Amino acid sequence: MFKLKTHTAVMAIAAVVLLPLLLWQTAVWTERVALRRVAEQAASTLALYATGLQEAVSKYEALPRLLARDPTLADLLRNPDDPARRDRINRALEEVNAIAGTADTYLLDRGGLTLAASNWNGPTPFVGRNYSYRPYFQQAIRGRLGRYVALGTASGKRGYYFAYPVRDRGGARLGAITVKVLLEPLEAAWPGTPDRMIATDSVGVILMSSRDDWRYRTLAPLSPDELSRIKAQQQYTGASLAPLPITLRRAFGAGAERVALTEEAAPASTTGGGETFLLQSFPLQDIGLTVWSLSPVRQVRGAVTQAMVLAAFGFLIVIGLTWIWLQRRQAIRERFETDERHKAELEGEVAARTRALQTVNADLRAEVAERQKTERELRETQAELVQAAKMAALGQLSAGIGHELNQPLGAIRSYADNAKVLLQRDRLPEVESNLTQISGITARMAEIIRRLKTFARKPSHEAEAVCLRGAVDDALALMGSRIDGERIEIAMPAEDARVLADPVRLQQTLVNLIGNALDAMAETEAPCLRFVAETRGDQVALQVIDSGPGIAEAARDHVFDPFYTTKEPGQGLGLGLSISYNILRDLGGSLSARNRPEGGACFTLTLPRAEPAGASARGGDGADLGPPPREAVR
Ligand code: ADP
């Protein structure tokens, strides 16, 4: 906006400063060109007029010389007083004058006295007048062709005079024959032109003029000598000979000058301090005259004005176009700058966002690392918890296990005591039978210990194909004496249903579920624990159903929460179901609980199905060993 204003101001200043300069220069140049054209035109007109005048005057030049050859003139000059001769010459001159079309033709004697004249019969006859003061006479009497221009003293008319000496046979000059040509008709023949035409004599007196009031005035003031000479010669008797009121003369090209005439001599139509003319001259050496043309300068004003209007118009167009161009250029530059600014802003924004994103990214990465660390710690904690829960379960189991081991130990002792007695009695076959019983009992004890070892082992985290039935049997075996007296039903249509699991953790889960069921059925009259397995697509589901009172209403939503228990302190940690739930989820399975309408709780675990039996998969420990004889375990 600021620049726009600057442009406008610059353009305005340029217009204000340059326009007058341009107009002035245009005016000067156009005037010069137009004046040159005017000068050329005037020069050709002037040449035409001047040569016309010269021809018109010069054609009479030979006439006096021709007349001088007439012997009758010399005869009269020798006999000036003879009236008959005079009369004859008067008439002859009158005739010649009429034929030649000259103003006057007259004969002067040696003293300048007129002896005969063509106007002898006219109102102002020259006869008897003396013209010895006229230069033409003086030139002629000296033997040369006399030329002169003057205002006639008798006629008062402007005339051009030619005079030639009249000689006798011996060549002596007896007088002069003179011819006067009137200038007035020649002047009248000058047709009207816009240019003023004048003709001056050798000293600058205007003899002929297209303006009457300029006649007998001078182009420059005459010197006193000139004035007295003119007076003596009676050249322009009665004329003022005042100079034209030329106030300024300035050269204009070759042979021309500009002159300014004041009001006095200028036409009435002009205004101001006078009129300016272009003055050109054409000297006519032969006849001693100079023809001048004065072309009014004002005639070029129209052209100058026109050129100035055109120049102003063109200048304003150029200024306008320049202004528009500057404006457009400014607009383009501003748009470019705005674009650049937007681009820079955008780039800045992108950089800022990138930085923010990088920060967020770094934060996220740190958070992820933190989470991974937490997860790792959690998993470790969980593993520790699992182990802790398992140890707790072991603690609970230890009583049963102790019982489990005490019973065979007692039996071994009985068999051994019996064997000692039988050995003393030398009843060897019975001793052998007792020893066989002892061997069988120790094998079962070893089996119990093996299962315990398996349970106590740290989980491997690696899934393998495990025989579900074997896992259930192992868990039941671990429960030992706790399930004595309970009715156990195992419904497994897919006898060798195999699941992908870590056998240790699966066993831990089953021990938890069985333990919970046994706890629930503690008060039940006819406790019954059932295992129902079925294949569901690529999963195997195992339901652990008890005949207890079912999950208490208040506990239903919390049974899988860690540390949630309804049991007496010391009876339960509230971790069993929570750990089992997580174990199954880790193994790609699930654990859910519900109460059965006919009573009792049903816990359903699912696990991914392993390849069918017979495949290369290794069975769980229980599977490898096969289910132990239930009676033996009890
Ligand atoms: P704990 O056995 O140490 O209490 P658990 O996580 O194994 O911890 O069990 C949480 C609770 O779920 C039990 O306290 C009990 O109230 C309920 N529960 C678990 N199993 C059964 C079941 N078979 N019948 C009824 N309630 C059950």
Provide a compact summary of the structure.
This protein has 634 residues and is of the alpha+beta class. It has helices at 2-58, 62-68, 71-78, 83-100, 135-141, 184-188, 224-233, 301-424, 428-456, 468-479, 503-520, 576-586, 621-625, 630-633; strands at 104-109, 114-117, 146-151, 158-167, 173-182, 196-200, 206-209, 246-251, 256-261, 275-284, 289-296, 464-467, 487-491, 498-501, 528-536, 539-546, 590-595, 601-608.
The number of strands is 18
Kindly provide the radius of gyration, computed on alpha-carbon positions and rounded to a whole number of angstroms: 80 Å
**Chain-averaged pLDDT:** 84
* Fourth-level CATH superfamily of the domain at 461-608: Histidine kinase-like ATPase, C-terminal domain
CATH topology of the domain at 461-608: Heat Shock Protein 90
Bound molecules: adenosine-5'-diphosphate
Assembly level:
single chain
In the CATH hierarchy, the architecture of the domain at 461-608 is 2-Layer Sandwich
Largest pleated sheet:
6 strands, antiparallel
The strands making up the biggest β-sheet line up spatially as 7-6-11-10-9-8
| Helix fraction by DSSP (H/I, runs of at least 4) | 40-55%
Distance between the termini: 105 Å
Counted by DSSP, the helix tally is 14
Work out the strand percent: 15-25%
CATH class wording of the domain at 461-608? Alpha Beta
**What is the overall silhouette?**
rod-shaped
Structural class from helices and strands? alpha+beta
Low-confidence stretches: 268-272, 614-634
